[in-house]
User: Fold these one by one.
Assistant:
Number 1:
Amino acid sequence: MRDIKLVEVRSEIAAGTRGASLGIDALKIASLDKTSDFFTQFEPVHVQDANNFLFRGNKFPNAKYIDGVYHVLKNVYSSIESLRLDKKFPIVLAGDHSTAAGTIMGIKAAHPEKRLGVIWIDAHADLHTPYTTPSGNMHGMPLAMCIQTDNLECQVNDPSEDTVQFWEKIKNIGGESPKVKPEDIVFISVRDTEEPEDHLIKKYGIKNFPTAEVRSKGIRTIAAETLEILKSCDQIYISFDVDSLDSSISVGTGTPVPDGLTVEEALQLNEELIKDKRVCCWEIVEVNPTLDSENLMAENAFDILEATTKSLVDNF
């Protein structure tokens, strides 16, 4: 059995809607409602957040709270790097999706010689930069941080000097070279993108499996094709954003989008992908119980968390 560590990151500083910091506790409440002993099985690691920056007001319109985001990403990066050096398998429970950049940076820093593939199960591509973002919310930027792009070809904003300085520092956490090659990213169910992101997806030939293709080909085929695209990678990280689920299900998340996966599809997909021996970290993000009723999103997310972890344990 893999030596699994639960990593709890209660950060919501990079989201546009408040409440994602409560997602981890919502998952724990869901486990109690389902009389599961999941959270007694693994020792948790708590990563310090910077949610207190929210009370100070935002000074960076093109990258909101980037000063706080920088602190959180450094904390996540150092925690994940330590766990990977110690041969632990991190299962990361996080609030907003920006912290995934810290996870990727930590994985890469622990084994810089290993080529890292990323499976991004999400409604969004998260490839914006301070130069292209329409909202300034940094949970839309983690993959841009990791491939170290500014995407100046699609520039629409003129970020302040302070913003640019923090952005450069963030891109270089864990090393000055890109953490992931863009062609080593696979999207599943991404369906809500803006033109600057579409430009990068086309430029680098990043593969996206839309929901309709997942449904027509079946979960096993999609998993096999995803892993085949990443055949040259030594390690694989899977990031599961609950807004990859259809908006009829994913009410309890900040940015729900129609035409997403069912709970069963997401559950089977993660169960299948995590069987690959190269997978070294799995992450679930963006549960926001303040937007939900009866904690339904967390209950569905917990089912996926528990099933994916069981698949990991059973296959090692």
Note: The longest helix spans residues 66-85.
Number 2:
Amino acid sequence: MPRLVISTVGTSLLTNQIDREYENGYYSRLRDTANCSYEEIRKYHEDITDIIQTLKERAEEKLSGDIDDIREASAELNGIYGLYEDQISQSEQDIHWLIASDTAQDKITAEILQSFLSTNGLNISIYTPQGFSTSSNEAFTQGIDELLNWFEDTIPGYQDSDYEVCFNLVGGFKAIQGFINTIGMFYANKIIYIFEGSSSELITIPRLPIKIDTEVIKPVEFALMAQGAWIDLKQLKKVPETLLYIIGDKALLSNWGRLIWNRSKVNFLLQSLLTLEYIKYEGSFVQDFKNIKDKKECLKLQETIVKVAYLLNKFDGDISYLKGDGGVQLETYKNTDIEHFRVTLSLRVSCKFVSGYLCLRYYGTHDHVERSEKIKGR
């Protein structure tokens, strides 16, 4: 069975190259600038650039050694080599991702690892949530939110293709590891750790049989919050506060709320069309919805409609904001009063704004929608 291996990345590959007897100041400088971006280091910490370059060169030299040297050099590599029992050539069918924070040190570390592993035949990429660091609660929370969305967009497709999902948490920052460990219980088939040392035994934690209490989920409100809508707490009675990010009398989904929604939304969004403010469904549209066979397509349509409803609510029913949104891209068919918006590059929804409601008429390919509306293709 092929694997999808997701590894969290820390900076051990750099810090392991410090000569603590003579270069102890290197460690303290790297620690103090751990959350700095490339731009911040270039602007405020020029000495760090030289330190990182020195350690980068040492790391690359260490990675040219034998397997013990390689495993000692990097926690992430220790985990990957442990997973394959030192035979990383066995990974030909596998897909690897490195999860790095949006910091200079972590991105450089990830780039060294990617270069080394790709040279050794691994199919490996890097994912970095924008602004992701532990510099502040806001930066961390936003990064985790973006990471959760990436997991949801990426992992289910591999699971549908019968990949085993493995989270390698041997490396990485402790704060990030704590979250990813919990997230892994929902997404991964197994999570791996390893004790310190190149020959240490791999520790494997299988996925626990976690059951989500879907009774606390309010599908319309959760779907809207997932799009960025602030919902009145009066509409969220009995929803645990751990699932909400609350300011005043309104709330968004917390990291855990987004995780729970991502893992359970298929149970709600495949059943029937949501009842949303500013949205009406014509019988022809309902029939097109019922004709959808692919669950991913169905989810994408529902989430796009929720986004449209959110934007209409946010701007008091002004459809001009739908025209300016890069994802929805509402347009009017030439020489008609019929609009259409984008679901994907090839799929559209035709609609008409009537008496304060956006009435959805047809859904499908360009040809299907235009033919149904009896509009000549443009």
Note: The longest helix spans residues 137-160.
Number 3:
Amino acid sequence: MIIAIDGPAAAGKGTLARKLADHYGLPYLDTGTLYRAVARTVLDAGESPQNEAAACRAAQTLDAGSLDDPRLREDETGKAASVVSAYPGVRRALLEFQRSFAHAPEGAVLDGRDIGTVIAPDADIKFFVTASPEVRALRRQLEYRGRGLDVPLEQVLEDVRRRDERDATRAEAPLKAAPDALVVDTSELNAEEVFKAAVQRIERLRGCHG
């Protein structure tokens, strides 16, 4: 069983993906980590994320061992990842890795921005997890505070909207819901409510195909 989960930043797709992977005993891949690793490699080399050639080289030589680097969760890395992920060469370089993971014999859960549309359009289950920009900005601000960072909500909201625009308008694999994806708005739902709704959907579909 392949479960594809897409959506914008801070919508809750990663939380849902991890809970579903645990529940069904499936391997899990946060595909955003791949782009963060590419971005971190570029930054560590002293290059700018705007340097497309440097980003493509980093993607082509990506070391899977770098995916555990705690610096991948830093805000600087996240912003750089949003830039490098728009480059067609970077996306092509990481495409096969993601597809191989998705089509492992035991199945998989993947979350990202183009899982159901590009990486695994044949996924058995597809979700598009979203929430209002204001709610997502508040969630991201709380994450920052948890790391000891005091970032004004207005600034976080501006960053969220800028990233949404970049993700939705890029030429290569823009962020959008697959036609057969279930859209889940988490603006007024907690993680457990989202998880229960997703499991109900999965079990209903499995029952239909059983």
Note: The first helix runs from residue 13 to 24.
